[in-house]
UniProtKB/TrEMBL annotation, chain A:
The keyword Cell membrane applies. Its main location: membrane. It is a peripheral membrane protein. It comes from the Bacteria. It is found in: Cell membrane. One of its GO terms (cellular component) is plasma membrane. Residues 7-241 form the ABC transporter domain. This is ABC transporter. It comes from Streptomyces fuscichromogenes. PANTHER family: AMINO ACID IMPORT ATP-BINDING PROTEIN (PTHR43166), GLUTAMATE_ASPARTATE IMPORT ATP-BINDING PROTEIN GLTL (PTHR43166:SF9). One of its GO terms (molecular function) is ABC-type amino acid transporter activity. The keyword ATP-binding applies. Belongs to the ABC transporter superfamily.
From TrEMBL, chain B:
Its main location: membrane. This is ABC transporter permease. InterPro entries: AA_ABC_transptr_permease_3TM, ArtM/GltK/GlnP/TcyL/YhdX-like, MetI-like, MetI-like_sf. PANTHER family: GLUTAMINE TRANSPORT SYSTEM PERMEASE PROTEIN GLNP, MEMBRANE COMPONENT OF AMINO ACID ABC TRANSPORTER. It comes from Streptomyces fuscichromogenes. It comes from the Bacteria.
């Protein structure tokens, strides 16, 4: 395996009207590594993920996926999104489809996998995530943790090159948080490349190879968990971490 | 004229880019200047938008030319032109048709308002829970079943011709009032179903959230469920209103003179069908602004709420 980054961002800028949400953001994500984006709400974590998936059009800078510039207006955006899996904070499962249909939709319609094959993979993934008996259920019948695990399976079903996780535990109670984070940890073990925005500092410290602290749309500090949590260089980072510790979240 | 929507959107985005490129606006602490990369992208997008506009113009031109040649080249065109598109009859018919149209407009406004109120009440009656309300629910269901199924023209005949035949004291025999009543009866049934579908499409979690805040069932309906339901149902409601507008012409079976009947009178006299075309176009002209207005209102409401994003 080469060490060329899976995802690379250079001087990315994104503004909504007058509000600049990301400015001059650089990021490199090596294969089989986990990058955690931390920072207060509104610091630009989610926007950064949405830009990486081309759900938002960036104003300036560039983003590469496996060495191919995906922010070039000539790129096929659908083809890019086919290679990236996304799990949203609010699950965003399709309520009118069963769990199995939610998962097999993209493999069958987008990737041309046969129904039998898609369902087999879906069931296998569901089984692994402890949801083997819920394949025929509708999302609204599941608990939050179950829904989020289904959403993860849905993202994994297409064997993505990169997985983006946007505060996937923010809507879950602590017991269910553990359930979902275990899944992410297992995925890391299997070598999945992931970028996640999270408020779970303990989890970020355990699982992330690289931590980026965002503040006001700028990556203020980056490094390994020991560097960022153990020896933060910026006053802003120290203040943020102090508040987290005071809140008992680290 | 009909350039694809996303293309024109990109043009807008480009315009904004131009502005900030010319003079960096706002955010003094920022010191941001667009990179060469951004300028190149914008140039490309502008070029693409120009190309899209050119293609749209060309395709429109070709389509129009083909249509023109097909119609004008048809063997019966001179005859058709004389019978359906006669300028002299058009000029003669227009004032009468417009005079008749005033009746259609008044009927539309009055019946439209009545239909919306009655339809809403029936829809609410159908969604009420609790055993006490069973008769109300059953009545509302029976009403919609009956009037949605009954052909409008038969309903009109029963009301407009049947009610006067009863010779009841104090009940009007005015065909316009009776016709309006018949229209309201039928259309309330349609609109009630539209509202009901809207109410049921609001996710149960919304009602749960409202009830958890201590709102009563009625308050939850009034402040949380109905506003969302009505917003979603604006396009189908408009559909029914446009349909109602055209059906107001049917009151002429009782002898009232509306736009269609006014055209009918001239046609009967002259055996030239141009007045029908005039009446038809007048109806279309009345509908278009209404549709555009509701489109604009809903689009504006959506923009205020929706999460951003380029797809």
């Amino acid at each position: 395996m080469s060490d060329a980054p899976v995802l690379r961002m250079e001087s990315v800028r994104k503004a909504f009207g007058d509000a600049v949400v990301l400015r001059d953001v650089d990021l490199e994500v090596a294969p089989h590594t986990v990058t955690a984006l931390i920072g207060a709400s509104g610091s630009g974590k989610s926007t950064l993920l949405r830009c990486a998936n081309l759900l938002e059009e960036i104003d300036d800078g560039a983003i590469w996926l496996d060495g191919e510039e995906i922010t070039d207006p000539r790129t096929d955006q659908d083809a890019v999104r086919r290679r990236i899996g996304v799990v949203f904070q609010a699950y965003n499962l399709f309520p009118h489809m069963t769990v199995l249909d939610n998962i097999t939709l993209a493999p069958r319609r987008v990737h041309g996998v046969s129904r039998a094959e898609a369902e087999e993979r879906a069931r296998e993934l569901l089984e692994r995530l402890g949801l083997g008996d819920r394949a025929g259920a509708y999302p609204d019948r599941l608990s939050g943790g179950q829904q989020q695990r289904v959403a993860i399976v849905r993202a994994l079903a297409v064997r993505p090159r990169l997985l983006l996780l946007d505060e996937i535990t923010a809507a879950l109670d602590p017991e269910l948080v553990g359930e979902v984070l275990t899944v992410v940890r297992d995925l890391k073990g299997e070598g999945m490349t992931m970028v996640l925005a999270t408020h779970e500092m303990g989890f970020a410290r355990d699982v992330a190879d690289q931590i980026c602290f965002l503040d006001g749309g700028v990556v203020l500090e980056r490094g390994t968990a020991e560097q960022v949590f153990g020896d933060p260089q910026q006053e802003r980072t120290r203040r943020f971490l102090r508040r987290i510790v005071e809140a008992g979240r680290l | 004229m009909t350039v694809a929507k996303d293309e024109s959107g990109q043009e807008d985005a480009d315009d904004k880019g131009d502005m900030s490129a010319g003079a960096p606006q706002g955010a003094p602490d920022d010191g941001y200047t667009p990179s060469a990369r951004r300028l190149e992208r914008e140039r490309y997008r502008r070029a693409r938008a120009r190309r899209a506009t050119a293609i749209a113009a060309l395709s429109t031109l070709v389509t129009a030319a083909v249509l023109y040649l097909v119609v004008v080249g048809a063997p019966g065109w001179p005859r058709t032109k004389e019978t359906f598109f006669n300028g002299q009859y058009a000029r003669e018919a227009l004032p009468k048709v417009l005079e008749g149209l005033w009746l259609n407009v008044r009927l539309l406004v009055v019946c439209g308002a009545a239909v919306l109120v009655l339809g809403m009440l029936i829809a609410i009656a159908r969604t009420l829970r609790g055993p006490v309300f069973f008769p109300l629910r059953a009545l509302a269901a029976a009403y919609t079943d009956f009037f949605r199924g009954l052909p409008l023209i038969i309903n009109l005949m029963i009301v407009v011709l049947g009610v006067p035949a009863l010779r009841l004291q104090g009940v009007t025999v005015d065909p316009v009032l009776l016709g309006g009543t018949a229209l309201t009866l039928t259309y309330s049934a349609y609109v009630a179903e539209v509202f009901r579908a809207g109410i049921e499409s609001v996710h149960p979690s919304q009602r749960a959230a409202a009830r958890s805040l201590g709102l009563t069932n009625r308050q939850a309906l009034r402040h949380v469920v109905l506003p969302q339901a009505v917003r979603r149902q604006v396009p189908p409601l408009l559909n029914d209103l446009v349909s109602l507008q055209k059906d107001t012409g049917l009151v002429s079976i009782g002898g009232a003179i509306d736009a269609v009947r006014a055209a009918d009178i001239i046609v009967g006299r002259s055996l030239n069908y141009t007045p029908y075309i005039v009446a038809g176009l007048v109806f279309v002209a009345l509908t278009i602004p209404m549709t555009r207005f509701t489109d604009w209102v809903t689009a504006r409401m959506d923009r205020q709420r929706a999460q951003g994003g380029s797809i």
